Amino acid sequence: MDFFARQDRARRLTHILVIYFAVAVVLIVVALNLVATAVVNLSASYQRTVTPVFDAYGHPVAATAHRVGLWQPDVFAYVTVGALIVIAAGSLYKIGQLSGGGRAVAGMMGAIPVAPNAPDPAQRQLCNVVQEMSIASGVPAPAVFLLPRERGINAFAAGFNTRDAVICVTQGALEQLTRDELQGVIAHEFSHILNGDMNLDLRLVGALHGILLIGLIGWGLVRAAGSDNSSSDQNIGWTLALLAIGVVLMTVGFVGLFFGRLIQSAVCRQREFLADAAAVQFTRNPGGLASALKKLGAMGFGSRVGDHSAEQIAHMFFASSLGAEWGWFATHPPLAQRIRLIDPSWDGKFSPHPGPTTLERYGGVQTSTAAPGMPLSAAGIVGAVGSPMPRHIQWASDFLTSIPPVIDQAARDPFAARALVFALLLADPGPVREKQIELLARQTDAATLNEVSRLAGPVEALGARARRVLVDLALPALRHLSGPQIQQFTTIVQVLTDADGGVSLFEYMLRRILARYLIAPAPKAPASAYYAIQPLLGDVEVILSALAQADGKDDEAVTAAFSAGVACLETPEALRLRKPVAIPAIDAALDHLALAAPGVKRRIVNACAYCVAADGMVQTGEGELLRAITTGLECPLPPLLAQHVQFPQPASVAT
Amino acid sequence: MPYIIAFAIAAVVIAVLIAWPVSIYNRLVVLRNRFQNAYSQIDVQLKRRYDLIPNLVETAKGYMAHEKQTLEAVIAARNQAAAANTAAAAQPGDPNAIRGIASAESALGGALGRLFAVAEAYPNLKANEQMNQLTEELTSTENRVAFARQAYNDAVLVYNTQRQVFPNVLLADAFGFREAPLFEVDKPQEREAVKVSFG
Question: Could you report the predicted ipTM of this complex, rounded to two decimals?
Fold first, then answer.
């Protein structure tokens, strides 16, 4: 199952969720109706027996006002409409609350942001691990949050897509886990981010809140009745009535709870195995994740999360946040089963384990045994989407240790990260650069200018290939800018890129990344609009033409590359090579292609891969453009490592 | 069944009446989280500054033995500011906490300013490599503090504005959304004093 199949799977699960939700709503309405009918019938017969009504002659008459029977249209209408409104209001309230995406979930849980420049070494390490994983998988680093009051070991990822994703860990995880264990947990969470699980998770929270609300109202009424201390007879009557209604609503609410848990476990249990497997695949280090799970089983706090909001997002957590769970209702598979699947030699004992020694915790990266080399072929590129391999993580870790401390520190700090981006945009020494510096002096303060001049040298020394990664590296710090600061920052970026009169590929990519991840992180993922490739062929033509011409090859090579890409599309329509391709055209084409369904995207990425691999080499320009395209399609591509690629026979692509 | 239609209409009206304050509440919560989170950057930068100052004083001590009082004043102001910052970081929306850290920061700026003014009289200290480096780092941190404070104040401003516009203003107090304080260092001339360079 590759990235695109997993995305499809996540979408199918959403449909199952809708069905479960509808069944839960119907059953809740039916249950409420049964209760209401019973109450009406009982009170009618009570009135008949206790307070008989007499007519003018003193004969008792039947209380005709209280019709008795199972079918009572009025009662049915009131109860049904009332219940539907409560459920809809509950769901809409939660969906509205979470429209802020991952950050809203973090805020709801009372999480605090972890700054990449935090003084606490454990927090810094957490940011480093996340950073490594993000470089390895090709998604910009998610914002990192911490649950400061939770002693259990747990974590979750939340968001609508990679743009607004957050990763949140508990204080317990930060203190108890070694670097390897933490890496396993973070890799597990990354697999949720990469597989499109998070979007479904957020919808689930909204749906759950709706069907849990009736029970919550009942609980509220019972508590209100319990705290009522007045003693007059009339008030006791009221209190009893409140208590009765509360108990009834709570009982009916159990139906909601039952289905809520059923949905959570149906959606999640299988997925946790997949995420565990993915984490092991990413890191090629089963030891880290297995030992994190064992530690969690041995600890008193386990993975429990005390915050009362944890129930709603129980399905998002790394391990069960609710303590002991059983059977059908478990949101997570049993710990022992998860460990056995990763580590078959485990003896089944959770031996109490002391916290990590300082050496263990801050020791070097133990990135496992050498990963077997995967020849980078066109097919390899499609397979690599959304599936970083250990060698990518190794590369990311090596890259992070290779960058000079000056740049590393600058990328972590909001103030200096801006200067770093400005420094990346500086042209080679010459008149253009002088103009840029003059513009900078006019638009910023002296302190920023100082910082830019301090960073310009080291940035230049790093070379062109590192520039894109440095932008990704700076993003988390840039997210700490306020609205006006972002505006000032992007204005200067605009001015600097315009200084030479043209827009290079790097400048275009930078603007696009900033626009997507900083200026308007549009939270909601748009629904797929294209399920066939035909309406998109014009856009595919643009992309393939641009890729074929990215590195100024001769005409013959350009045509060969273009036809290699077209050939594996296997469409009856003929595609025409366009030249030259302007950057705005690429931009518009990417916006369209982003709306394609996963299966269609797979074919497009495949065509691009064959186009790039046509001459057996990945050139810098091609590589950068390919990353820009995959980012635009929300198909995160790990860094292309080998410069030489094999040229395989075009294989037909299952859609 | 006309009264069922009436009931349905009433229900919709009630639903709107519930949804409307809820959306206001949610929006204010998001904005409050945002400015509270913005304090974390101030916290990071201030802590860095508080770590630098003892080193600076330690270095200066060797050269200005006669200025014990000035040096002690700096350390005392630093300790006070560090405590005030801890309190503010725990409650970034509390006006008293923010006022506390703002005035403690002003006092620290003043004490540092006096230290640098006195240091002018010690040419050996001015030539000290480590002293220059520390001063440089302190100045750079000062810029970052100002930048982080601007980000915090921007977020507070957005929150306060949202709180005060109609109809939010009717509900903000009832929901417990208090006006958030801006973090301003009251005496800019004392802040500038830190910028003295030994170059």
Answer: 0.81
